[in-house]
Structures are given as C-alpha cells and as structure tokens.
Design goal:
The protein is of the alpha+beta class and 308 residues long. The chain folds into two domains: 2-234, Roll (Chitinase A, domain 3); 238-308, no CATH class. Helix content is 18%, strand content 24%. It contains four helices and ten strands. The longest helix has 27 residues, at 2-28.
C-alpha cells in the first residue's frame, strides 16, 4: 500500500510540475494549435471541392511513398523511432507504399452556414500503446513531428510536451484517441522512463488542419502529416465541477465552446453552474453518490442542466 501511495503521489506531482513548467510553451505552440485568429487568410474555397483536391493529392502521395516501417518491428518498450518518409523509386522501388498500410476515418467539418462536409484522414498505428486512450478533450503528453506532403518538417518536438487535445487542429485532435498511453518507471535519480506508449501517424486534408489560413509560414490549403507518440494523458475537468470536459460536449461535435446550457456566454466546460440555478454543478450532478447524474423530476434532463 505504501509503495502504491508513493507511486501515485509521485505521478501526480510529476504531472503538475510538467504541466506548470510547459504551460507557456503550450500557449506559444502554433503548428498543431487551432488557428483561432486567422491572419492574411485568403478567401475560402468550397469545402467539398477543396477536400477532393486534397484527397487526390494525399492518395497520390501515399501510393508513391513509404515510411521506415522496418524500424518499428520488434521495438523495445521505450523505443520511439523518428518517422522517415521517402519516395518509392531506385533502391526503394520494392518498398510497400503507405497507401497499402493505412486505415481511415471521416470527420464532418461545418462551414459558416452550418453545412457539414465529410473529410477523410488516413493513419497508421505502429504501436497501439498499453494503457487508456485520451479523449478529444484530454491533456496529452506527446512527442510529435509535423510534415507537409513535400516532406518538409514544419515543426517537431523531440522532448515531450503537454497539449490540450481540444486546442489543436481537428485532424490531430480526432487522431489521438486512436492511440493509448504507455506505462512508466521511476529511475533512482527521480526521472521517468516511459514504456509501451502508442505510436502512429495521420495524414489529413487541409480542412482538418488550417484550410485557407497560412499559419506559421505554412501555405494555405496544406494537407498535413503528424507523427505522434502518446506518452501519457490526464483527463480534464476544466471547471472542476465533477463533470469531465468530454461530457460537457453535449452535441458531440468536438467543439466545446458552443455548448452553453444557460446561455450566459460561458461554455459549460468553463461554467461551475451549468444551468445557472444557483446550485453549483458539482453539488447537484450526483448528490446521491451512485455514479449517475441525478434527475430529480424524471424529465430526462439531469439536474445540473435543468434550472427547474
């Protein structure tokens, strides 16, 4: 029991210290962060037309390129090779193309008129990981590498960094739940050794990246590649109201800022009283302690969202 207590306390201290130390870096981070204030954006193309253009470019890229898949065979628990992508030609003419190794997922992107357009992203999981998966709302402790289809590296973090999954570009955000965190050992010098963390990469169309915004020197309408190592995670409850942030996305669109039950201009995930009835959410979410949100009047609306 004592060792378990020390282990848990050390991990909590580790997470807090890392989060505090790196929070400024996270705010300065631009290459996979959402572009909330586009600068010098060009007029937006039609989402469907641009997705078709991007998808054709991505498929052509995957059919004519391979990644260093042999480096990911029989990995040691703490190993995380750097992703290298090269053309299939010359000495590499017998390599297996990325196209033959990917899976895909679709995400709906909403335009300014509220119309939804499906966007396809392609991914490869080199190692799934051994622990829990993050949600699209959680804090993730990751190493990553960002590339364009011309193989230029536009950003890279070889040392892990904490990111809020809800604050990064949509393709990055929606990919991280497909990886699992690893485990860790505490070395004699107090440092940490991470093992069996998830590793994968995703190739996304510009609609899941920055679309028409030339952020950080990236060209507008750039499909993006992110190689990610999912070191560990922290579940988030941004307003400490006992409701995890992921459960405050009531419409399930991965946009946490448009859920505002009491229309007080404070999104639920930042609002300690979601229904503005004068009772804090943490005090009426599960008053009987059965693990289920209370619904005192049986109207199908949990008490913490029901101002009646």
């Amino acid at each position: 029991m004592y060792l378990a207590s020390v282990f848990n306390n050390n991990f909590i201290l580790f997470s807090i210290r890392l989060l505090s130390a790196l929070i400024l870096l996270t705010f300065c981070f631009i290459s996979c962060k959402k572009d909330d204030s586009p600068i010098n954006s060009i007029p937006a193309n039609d989402y469907l037309d641009q997705h078709n253009i991007d998808n054709d470019s991505i498929i052509d890229f995957m059919q004519n390129h391979f990644y260093n898949y042999n480096d990911y065979v029989n990995l040691s628990p703490d190993d995380g090779p750097e992703l290298i992508i090269d053309s299939i030609k010359g000495d590499n003419s017998n390599k297996t193309p990325i196209y033959d190794q990917v899976s895909s997922f679709q995400i709906d992107v909403k335009d300014s008129d509220g119309n939804l357009f499906p966007h396809t992203a392609y991914y490869v999981i080199m190692r799934e990981g051994s622990g829990e998966s993050p949600t699209v709302a959680d804090s993730v402790y990751v190493r990553y590498k960002g590339m364009l289809l011309n193989k230029d590296v536009f950003d890279q973090r070889k040392s892990p960094i904490w990111l809020q999954a809800k604050n990064v570009v949509r393709g990055f955000q929606e990919f991280v739940p497909r990886l699992k965190k690893g485990s860790f050992d505490i070395n004699v010098d107090g440092t940490y050794k991470f093992n069996d963390f998830g590793i994968g990469f995703v190739i996304m169309p510009s609609g899941l990246g920055y679309f028409n915004s030339p952020v950080g020197g990236l060209p507008s309408y750039s499909p993006l590649i992110f190689h990610i190592e999912m070191i560990t995670i922290n579940q988030t409850d941004h307003d400490n109201d006992s409701v995890l942030t992921i459960n405050e996305d009531l419409d399930g669109d991965s946009n946490f800022d448009n859920d505002d039950t009491d229309s007080d201009s404070i999104a639920n995930y930042l609002d300690p009283d979601d229904d503005n009835d004068g009772i804090l959410t943490k005090d009426e979410y599960d008053a009987d302690g059965d693990g289920i949100a209370d619904d005192s009047d049986g109207d199908g609306i949990p008490d913490y969202l029901d101002n009646e």
